[in-house]
Write a structure and sequence with these properties.
The complex is a heterotrimer. By secondary structure, chain A is of the alpha+beta class. Chain B is of the alpha/beta class. In chain B, helix 8 (about 205-220) links the parallel strand 7 (about 190-195) and strand 8. The longest helix of chain B is centred in the middle third of the chain and has 18 residues, at about 205-220. The two termini of chain B are about 35 Å apart. Chain C contains 13 helices and two strands. By secondary structure, chain C is mainly α. Chain C is globular and about 80 Å long. The chains are: A alpha+beta, B alpha/beta, C mainly alpha. Chains in contact: A-C, B-C. Chains B and C meet through helix 2 and helix 4 of B and helix 9 and helix 10 of C.
Chain lengths: ~575, ~350, ~325
């Protein structure tokens, strides 16, 4: 043992050195100054119009594809606007204002007719590609066709295919169907006009066309799956080079014209993205000031969290909600949870503070949730149907537990019941959450057994398959959800609408098929009055909570770091609570 | 003056002796975790050029340690060497490492027991001889190579100009030992130490090698120390014999005296252990009982007493008092408490007839 | 000698076939044994919430709908005669030897491997120089001063070198030397030598040293053990008896003999490393084969995984062939046959 001691001392020394080094990163002289903790959540920090410099991003992973027609990732949607312009986009800014849809390639938002089934957009004139070609509405039509209807483009969402009227026979996409007419439900009467015909009224079409899939692609330049390395730019920057797994570099698009683009500032001269970088090293570089932004936008690594919360770094930290809800679905077809009182008992007896702690606490885990819609989504209304109180020594207080017991009584299970709770085996925090819930439910006699499944098969094979859930009696299922567009419909439709129950791979784990909820959702999306829609979402949220089928646990949050020299740093809710990359620059 | 019998009068004075090689009170001790190993403990002898001294004794008696000590090959960090070694008027024990190194290979050379392991397997025989020659002679590679071929020829290797580029593993055992000898003699050393040079060889080859050493000794007029446990080899080559036991000299005599009137019971034992074909089988071998002593706890008194059949003839003396090496007859020394006449009687009556 | 090389090369080809077959098997048969359907494998190449139609299309596009044996056959066929790749509106031709295209993107595998090999080679060869020098010198000195303070300290550091993960030592060295002392550029600053030789060197110093630290530790211990053994050999005594200086004895006689076993291990280590230094590359953000291997495995990109596996196998087989040939030169007792 004696001989081992020097190693321990040595290792301790190294750890100390690393700790020192981390503390030494960045200028310690700036202690306490800076724009302030959470300054970027509701306002744009370090506002500037100064052009020039190189904005340096790094990512611990890679794009699914930087091809605007073949990508789903939120950061990619955010970033693609630097080299492409969709019909609409989200307003550059921070907090609530970032949820507003504004015209981009289109001169104005869409005008709907036919009760919300037809949407028409007029393109701005004079928008050019980096190769000098002029952007036309045909290129937008082509971009939607290739991204939604070809076999080759499989990575992005397929909302257009879902909502647009299809050809007869079904349209096979421009790679197989060489007919110039393409998809008949997208019309381009002239080079500046594009008209979409939908199957059903869809009031939030402006949100759909904010997706990168409407970024125009000139047919002659399309190289299919190889297009990702030869992207034609319609934005202020052109892609000089993208090498998968290595890097992307952008420089100014000489043919971009500020007069056609009222929302972009196009500040840096160059933008670089390094890919597949060590996540912990990315944090070190951010703190040392040699890197400007973590492109992934999901917050610093757990090892870095204490460092960024130190006094000298905290003014450069934001802790926004991420648009994610972590919640537990109670399956309405598994006994005894088919009884609403049993579900309400669970609502009361689930110790959300314990669950929050298990997921990393209030900063890294998230805020306690009482609604299905998170605060960053349009339509969020604050309410709490099943209020809980904590006892002074921790855990739920007697009054809360008494309410739970009362509901159990009403359910006919005065001594509690037994069921199963599922979590993803490769997500240790989710498993910890299940354990915390298991303990708190045991206090009212509800015994739950934890079952774990791999994340890759969670929805396809297990809890997303109603038959499996019924056969195995899994009453409670933990999951997380974020919307593809930040409105109540975008968030709720996939998890609480009866249509979202699928034989496999569905996300409506509670199998909630409440006619009132379904109708309210259908009505809302057909309602072109935005204010009325937003109001309706809050009410639908209350309806859902009334069924007690979803137990909201936390609104996910992350610790985001914005280095000192980054200008126009603001959290955009439109892309899940990351920094808005559109007008970012460097000092 | 302990254990200095064969040395000259100048012993212990630090003055240069007149003889070519003189070893005075040489002690080589190795400190170990178990205690101090006294491998050589007060050894003295002298040797002139052209003469051959045979050092005999069992394994672990200190023969090889002595030879390595003379060459200065003990690591100063794990061996304590004291006493004096005079070679050609130069004292070696207290000389600097570099000085001794310069003498090695040039003034004194050594032939080792196992020529296969003693030669570097990755270098050609020629390269190893050339290296040995060039350390001490500032000559070109070509000259050194010619010399190496010449040396190989002189030790009786056929086609030396071809074999010079062969590797040790391509030589037969006898040829390897010849090459080893060629390497040792490449710088004309005045002192040649042969440490069991024939033990690893076929019997038929042994005689050839011994002949070769004798011939070369005459040719070069070197002093030779022949270390062996084989009395036959000593009888063949040596002028004088030094019998070692437990790190000390127990008998020193001319070859004739040693074989015909040895004075130490250990020497009698060695002679008795020698196989002879002219006697009947049952009588042939009279091995010494017991095993060699530990060099850490050397037996008190005479180190040989636990194995000596005559230890009771002297009262307690044999295990209380260490016998000194004294000159019993001119040029014949022995370290034994037995009175001279008793030794003679035992030898003539008991030992000799059985040999 | 020539016949020997030919024989070894034939063996290598057979081995590569086996390696590719095993990789194919692990990729397709193991998941199926574990109950996964082809649809589920294909679903992983589609975006979020894959539809049945998308899965079907993807299966056809990647050839996953065919039996595994047929897929393996067409993989081998592409290596021999090349292959056409349909990217949608355009079709690419991948000439023989074609290792196929990534399942994740449209990258040709061979091109990607060749693009990334120089970074890995720079890292591996540079680190090898550092660890050979560092490890052998430390080992020799430790052996000669056995039991000394130096020896103990070196061996303790060596032990820590073997035990500390690169992920840790790499990040600590970056924090210290790049971000605090600002001596070396930080992670992700690797540039190809052809593009910016100065940056190439500067950015690789820390990875070299970090990676070398791990290996040097092992080589120091090996060298020390080898030297201790060799220094007791009879021929070392002979070399000293010849009057050679201690330096000559150590370097020419002892070290040379101690290095032969190290040569074998060096061959294996370097061969493996040339196939990608996974941890070092990901820690320092070096776009080499190791990083490619990890991301391909994580994203289930079979052709890429196969490609990296094959290039690693080729480098191991190749380096070991060289080592065996070197052996015959270093140790004259070795006969090739």
């Amino acid at each position: 043992m004696n001989k081992m001691r020097p190693i321990v001392v040595f290792a301790a020394g190294v750890v100390a050195a690393s700790g020192l080094a981390a503390c030494g990163g960045g200028d310690s002289g700036s202690s306490g100054s800076g724009p302030g903790y959470n300054a970027g959540v509701n306002a744009v920090v370090n506002k500037s119009d100064k052009k020039g410099g190189t904005l340096k991003f790094a990512h611990s992973d890679d794009w699914d594809s930087p091809d605007p027609g073949n990508t789903y990732y939120a950061f990619s949607q955010n970033f693609s606007r630097l080299y492409g312009r969709g019909l609409t986009t989200f307003k550059p800014g921070a907090g609530k204002e970032s949820l507003e849809v504004v015209p981009d390639l289109a001169a104005d938002l869409g005008t709907s007719s036919d009760g919300g089934k037809t949407w028409t957009y007029k393109l701005r004139t004079g928008v050019k590609y980096d190769d000098g070609g002029t952007v036309t509405s045909k290129d937008v039509k082509y971009a939607v066709e290739r991204s939604n209807f070809t076999k080759e483009m499989q990575l992005g969402p397929k909302y257009f295919k879902q909502y647009l009227v299809d050809n007869k026979p079904a349209y096979k996409g421009p790679y197989e169907d060489k007919n110039d007419e393409g998809l008949k439900s997208i019309e381009t009467p002239d080079d500046q006009t594009i008209v979409f015909h939908l199957k059903e009224p869809f009031a939030e079409f402006d949100y759909l066309v904010a997706m990168s899939q409407t970024i125009p692609v000139p047919k002659a330049k399309d190289t299919g799956t190889k297009y990702e390395s030869a992207i034609v730019s319609s934005g202020p920057y052109k892609v000089d080079n993208y090498t998968r797994g290595k890097s992307m570099s952008l420089s100014r698009n000489p043919n971009w014209n500020q007069s056609t683009d009222p929302i972009r500032k196009a500040l840096p001269d160059k933008i670089e993205v390094q890919l597949k970088q060590n996540a912990d090293d990315i944090d070190q570089r951010l703190l040392a000031g040699t890197l400007d932004m973590d492109a992934a936008g999901v917050g610093v690594q757990s090892g870095t969290q204490p460092k960024v919360l130190a006094a000298d770094q905290k003014p450069y930290v934001d802790n926004p909600v991420q648009g994610f809800l972590r919640f537990m679905s109670l399956n309405v077809n598994v006994k005894p949870l088919d009884n609403v009182h049993c579900r309400i008992a669970v609502q009361y007896a689930t110790d959300k503070v314990a669950a929050q702690t298990a997921y990393g606490g209030p900063l890294a885990g998230g805020d306690l949730a009482t609604t299905v819609l998170p605060p960053s989504v349009d339509g969020y209304t604050k309410f709490d149907l099943y209020p809980q109180k904590q006892a002074s020594g921790g855990g739920l207080d007697e009054a809360t537990l008494a309410k739970a017991k009362q509901e159990l009584q009403a359910c006919g299970q005065p001594n509690g019941f037994t069921t199963k709770i599922s979590a993803r085996s490769d997500r240790p925090k989710e498993v910890a959450m299940a354990q915390a819930i298991q303990q708190s439910l045991a206090k009212v006699g509800i015994k739950v057994n934890i079952v774990q499944f791999p994340a890759g098969d969670y929805f396809n094979k297990y809890v997303g398959v109603p038959k499996y859930v019924h056969d195995h009696g899994i009453g409670m299922m933990i999951m997380a959800w974020a919307a593809d567009w930040p409105t109540g419909y975008g968030f709720l439709a996939q998890i609480v609408h009866g249509d979202a129950i699928k034989p496999s791979g569905g996300n409506n784990l509670a199998e909630l098929n409440d006619p009132t909820v379904n109708k309210a959702l259908n009505d809302a999306i057909a309602n072109t009055d935005k204010a009325a829609r937003t109001k309706a979402y809050g009410e639908i949220d209350k309806l859902v909570m009334g069924t007690a089928a979803e137990v909201p646990l936390v609104y996910a949050k992350a610790l985001m770091y914005r280095p000192k020299r980054v200008t126009n740093a603001g959290i955009t809710y439109a892309y899940g609570g990351m920094y808005d990359y559109l007008n970012m620059g460097v000092e | 003056m302990t254990g200095t019998a064969p040395a000259a009068d100048t012993a212990g004075t630090g003055e240069a002796p007149t003889s070519f090689l003189e070893v005075r009170d040489l002690k080589i001790h190795f400190p170990t975790d178990d205690g101090l190993v006294k491998s050589v403990d007060g050894l003295s002898f002298q040797l002139e050029r052209g003469r051959t001294l045979g050092i005999v004794g069992e394994s672990g008696s200190g023969k090889s340690v002595t030879s390595l000590g003379i060459l200065g090959l003990h690591n100063k960090r794990n061996a304590n060497v004291s006493g004096e070694i005079w070679l050609n008027g130069k004292e070696l024990v207290n000389a600097s490492q570099t000085e001794v190194r310069r003498l090695r290979g040039r003034d004194m050379a050594m032939i080792f027991q196992d020529p296969l392991s003693a030669m570097h397997p990755f270098y050609t025989v020629g390269a190893q001889i050339i290296e040995a020659y060039r350390v001490h002679n500032d000559v070109s590679k070509q000259v050194a190579r010619k010399h190496a071929i010449d040396m190989l020829g002189r030790v009786g290797i056929p086609k030396p100009d071809k074999r010079v580029d062969d590797y040790p593993h391509q030589f037969s055992g006898g040829m390897r030992q010849r090459a080893m000898i060629a390497m040792a003699l490449s710088c004309d050393p005045e002192l040649l130490i042969a440490d069991e040079p024939t033990t690893a060889l076929d019997v038929t080859v042994q005689a050839q090698i011994l002949d070769l050493i004798r011939d070369l000794q005459q040719e070069f007029n070197s002093a030779v120390i022949m270390i062996t446990h084989d009395l036959g080899v000593v009888a063949e080559l040596s002028d004088d014999i030094l019998v070692m036991y437990a790190g000390r000299c127990v008998e020193y005599a001319s070859v004739g005296d040693a074989f015909h009137q040895p004075l130490h019971p250990y020497t009698w034992g060695l002679l008795g252990s020698m196989p002879r074909l002219d006697r009947e089988r049952s009588e042939r071998l009279m091995p010494i009982k017991g095993s060699p002593p530990s060099l850490i706890n050397v037996p008190s008194g005479c180190a040989f007493h636990p194995r000596c059949p005559y230890k009771d003839l002297n009262g307690e003396k044999c295990w209380t008092e260490r016998p000194e090496l004294v000159e019993a007859e001119p040029g014949h020394k022995a370290a034994c408490h037995l009175p001279q006449d008793k030794k003679r009687k035992i030898w003539t009556d008991e030992i000799r007839p059985k040999l | 000698m020539f016949a020997y090389i030919i024989r070894r090369l034939i063996g290598a080809v057979l081995m590569l076939l086996l390696v590719s077959l095993v990789t194919f098997g692990i990729f397709f048969w193991l998941p199926k044994l574990a109950g996964q359907t082809t649809d589920q494998i294909a679903a992983s190449y589609v975006g979020k919430a894959p539809t049945a139609e998308a899965i079907q299309d993807t299966k056809e596009r990647l050839g996953l709908d065919k039996p595994v044996v047929v897929q393996y056959g067409s993989y081998l066929k592409a290596i021999v005669v090349g292959k056409d790749y349909k990217a949608g509106p355009v079709t690419d031709h991948c000439p023989a030897p074609c290792l196929g295209y990534s399942f994740r993107s449209s990258q040709p595998v061979l091109e990607t491997l060749l693009d990334r090999a120089p970074a890995t080679a720079s890292l591996a060869l540079g680190a090898a120089v550092f660890w050979l020098i560092g490890g052998i010198v430390t080992g020799v000195v430790s052996a000669l001063r056995r039991g000394s303070l130096w020896d103990r300290a070196a061996m303790i550091i060596a032990l820590s070198g073997v035990s500390l993960p690169i992920y840790f030592t790499g990040l600590v060295s970056l924090a210290l030397f790049s971000y605090t002392l600002k001596i070396f550029p930080g992670g992700g600053s690797y540039k190809p030598i052809t593009e910016d030789p100065v940056m190439w060197f500067q950015s690789l110093v820390l990875p070299w040293v970090t990676l070398a630290f791990l290996y040097a530790a092992m080589y120091a211990r090996l060298t020390r053990a080898g030297m201790l053994e060799t220094m007791n050999e009879d021929y070392i005594r002979t070399a000293r008896a010849k009057g050679l200086s201690e330096t000559t004895v150590v370097t020419k006689h002892a070290l040379r003999a101690s290095l032969t076993p190290i040569l074998t291990i060096f061959g294996l280590d370097l061969g493996l490393l040339l196939g990608g230094a996974v941890l070092t590359e990901s820690t320092f953000g070096i776009p080499g084969l190791g990083q490619l291997a990890i991301s391909s495995i994580n994203s289930g990109d079979l052709p890429m995984v196969l490609g990296v596996t094959l290039i690693t196998s080729v480098s191991i087989v190749g380096i070991n062939l060289i080592v065996d040939l070197l052996y015959a030169i270093v140790d004259p007792r070795v006969r090739l046959g």
